[in-house]
Amino acid sequence: MTTPSPGKPRADALIDGERLITRLRTLARIGARADGGVNRQALTPEDAAARKLVVGWAQEAGLAAETDPIGNLYLRHAPAGAENAEPIVSGSHLDSQPAGGWLDGAYGVIAALEAVQSLKENRAALSRPVEAVAWTNEEGSRFIPGVMGSSFYVDRLSISEIEDKLDPDGVRLGDALAELLAATPDLPVREQPRPIAGLVEAHIEQGPILEAERLTIGVVEGVQGMRWMEITVRGRTDHAGTTPLRQRRDAMLAATSMVQALADALDDPDDIIRFTVGRFIARPGAPNTVADEVTFTIDLRHPDEHVLERSTETIGRVVAEKAGDCDFDIALQEALKPVRFDERIVETVASATSDLGLPARRMVSGAGHDAAVLAQRYPCGMAFVPCHKGISHHPSENADEADLIAGAAVLAETLRRLASD
Amino acid sequence: MTTPSPGKPRADALIDGERLITRLRTLARIGARADGGVNRQALTPEDAAARKLVVGWAQEAGLAAETDPIGNLYLRHAPAGAENAEPIVSGSHLDSQPAGGWLDGAYGVIAALEAVQSLKENRAALSRPVEAVAWTNEEGSRFIPGVMGSSFYVDRLSISEIEDKLDPDGVRLGDALAELLAATPDLPVREQPRPIAGLVEAHIEQGPILEAERLTIGVVEGVQGMRWMEITVRGRTDHAGTTPLRQRRDAMLAATSMVQALADALDDPDDIIRFTVGRFIARPGAPNTVADEVTFTIDLRHPDEHVLERSTETIGRVVAEKAGDCDFDIALQEALKPVRFDERIVETVASATSDLGLPARRMVSGAGHDAAVLAQRYPCGMAFVPCHKGISHHPSENADEADLIAGAAVLAETLRRLASD
Question: pLDDT tier at A4 (50, 70, 90 boundaries)?
């Protein structure tokens, strides 16, 4: 056996850092915005182009590329004799927010490809296959819900229950998915998800902690819980010039008062609750017509499930109080409980990081990730790298190249250790 | 001279009521919504189709049809010998709200066409031409500002200053206007507005008064003043899961608190102030991203200019108070002072109504109208007919056919009297 020493590996021997950065910058051109950000929403032509690019790199490297009915991508290295073992998997997503950055999701896919390709090139002695994965529609900014590909993988949603969903322009999800799959017609399609022996997702932190503490790696122990809700408020349209205010059923005034009262009611002196209304659509949307329907979303997060439950009750009460003469619905669209990652995976990330001599800390993720969904069924973990000022979901999202390279090296070493058991 | 007796004309001798109703119902099919309403916004293919239909009716009746650079339509009857006198004009608009009704605007155009055509058919002895007019883009629901065609006519706006405006889908006004004009390529184009001797606009009341008092005609003495503003609030996008609320600059929370505080500050115990936020657009609009920009509109109306001025100051103060860490702009997009109509025109509407034996009252219009803009330069007046429950700008907008016919008869008789001076 020619296993490299597990004692003190060097990052630059484990992966090709220049290739990693070049690929990230090439990928960032697909859906590039004039302001330096990326708009590559799920199931768009840009998403399809990103998939083709990544598949091309993987095939050039001799990896086997496959897809599945929801468009997840699998880029696989199966060493001789290990073909039938359950694989060690790493990946993230290629879709972005409408005004997103170049690293959220993309980094986890390209770092995983770099790790898998490097393990193949370095002829690492593995007893399991290793796979880089790109999960479909993590963001959920175009089609709700997000973490769609990973939810499909753990059997939390079926295509039949989502294919008739519409994006804000009225495009059907099923049609957009069919177009995405048609863009890579030669890929074999895995009809059923296969068991995973272990999974590690690399990601930028999307928060300010690692940068502030001058650390290179965050060893992620879990993810805070999240609930997504959509509130619909229905009133009556009326002419803005003639209808006295006391006679109106104004959905705009009811909805804005709900948002304000919710912000007050969920105010947290410790600033741990994350309460966000990111989408607010008023119809018919004419300046001189009273709005008869408003739909707004709530994104609610906290590390403690009890706080999420109590806050959800508060939301129901406050919305009812502020509805006035309007009707309302509250639809719970997604609920992710706080996640604790697999102890063996977390320890392996920690020891690989420590053996590479990189400064690190343990932490809880503020954002949801595909790994948090996959953890419902498989042993999972994550590794964070710092990003500038904690900014993410924004065109100015950025990170130091040295940190991105270090993170990919940690990933390669972690996958090697997990796949050598 | 064969002038009919001015004493006691009969409505059914003055116009063809069946033709009026048939035309209104035919026109309502263009842009018809499944819910019974009409979506025929300005400068759309539906608007163009409505123009072609009305031009066809006018030409069949032997009226001369012309347009102008902003797409206003003129349907003219000039009796022999009266060709060079300044005309008496009547009209309204063919565009609707996105979820509008079949009568707002359409009634004033078709009633004017019916009046002009009937005066021609009845060989009324006139010393002036009479013209039915359709003014372009009264509603302003697609392209701001509204009352565009009538503002152009009184030289309050030029095409060069509006042609680069975009609709919510990014379509340029100049391009949409060119397409509209291309749909009626054979119409002569009046390059310059011509002086008007007098103007009367017929319209549904769009308020509840005439129906409640069981009256057939509202003799309109004036129009309340109106101001349209657009408020833009700018913050910063952040990731909804990772950014503590105290560190955010959330444009959504700032904007909703402005709307609420404005509704409180402008509360009027007499319920005379009309304060409406009808459009509210939040960007980027993703559920898991803090909004960095919100744009909302204010439609403010009152019969007293001093109240409008004071309320505008209040708006400036409240928006600044509630902006928090966000930046903001307040753009005044349209300001119409309260209008008093021409006394001779008002008296002529009143006497024609009274001589037709129709129950009526004098009133102030709650809604803005093309006639209120044209009154800045020409002697103008209006006649209202009742509508059901005061509902307008809504698919359920409706009126009794008998009232619509009576209103057109009043219009015909008023035009005859004004054109016989």
Answer: very low
CA atoms within 13 A on the CB side of A226: 28
Size of interface A-B (CB pairs under 8 A): 252
CB contact (8 A) between residue A238 and residue B140: no
Longest dimension (CA), chain A: 86
What does the pLDDT read at residue B3? 42
E strands, B154-266, where?
198-204, 217-223, 225-234
Phi, psi (5° rounding) for residue B158? -110, 155
Return the residue of B nearest to A167 by Cα. B286
AA letter at A265: A
Q: Are the beta carbons of B273 and A245 separated by less than 8 Å?
A: yes
Domains along chain B with CATH numbers: 11-224+338-418 (3.40.630.10), 227-336 (3.30.70.360)
Give A123: exposed, middle or buried? Use CB within 10 Å, 0-12, 13-18, 19+. Answer: exposed
The answer to whether the beta carbons of residues B205 and B385 sit under 8 Å apart is yes
d(CA B205, CA B300): 19
Q: What interface predicted TM-score (ipTM) does this complex get?
A: 0.70
Q: Mark yes or no for CB contact A278/B240 under 8 Å.
A: yes
pLDDT tens-place string over residues B40-53: 999 999 999 999 99
Using a CB-CB cut-off of 8 Å, the residues of chain A touching B259 are 252-253, 256
A contacts of B239 (beta carbons < 8 Å) = 206-207, 366-367, 391-393
Is the CB of residue B89 less than 8 Å from the CB of residue B342? no
As given in the structure block, the two tokens for residue A359 are 């400064």
Contact (Cβ atoms closer than 8 angstroms) between residue B282 and residue A278: yes
CB-closest option in B144, B207, B256 to A287: B144
Mutate to test the interface with A, among B276, B298, B299, B308 (most CBs of A within 10 A): B276
Look at the pTM and tell me if it is higher than 0.80.
no
Name A274's bridge partners.
A301
d(CA B289, nearest CA chain A) in Å: 5
A392-406 residue pLDDT tens:
888 999 999 999 999
**φ, ψ of residue A24 in degrees (nearest 5):** -60, -40
B288·A141 Cβ contact <8 A = yes
The chain A residue lying nearest B368, using CA atoms, is: A241
Residue of B nearest to A138 (CA): B288
Give the contacts of A202 (CB within 8 A, at least 6 positions apart). A90, A92, A107, A108, A111, A112, A382, A383, A384, A385, A407, A408, A410, A411
Of the pLDDT bands very low, low, confident and very high (cuts 50, 70, 90), residue A226 is: very high
Among B246, B281, B260, CA closest to A261: B260
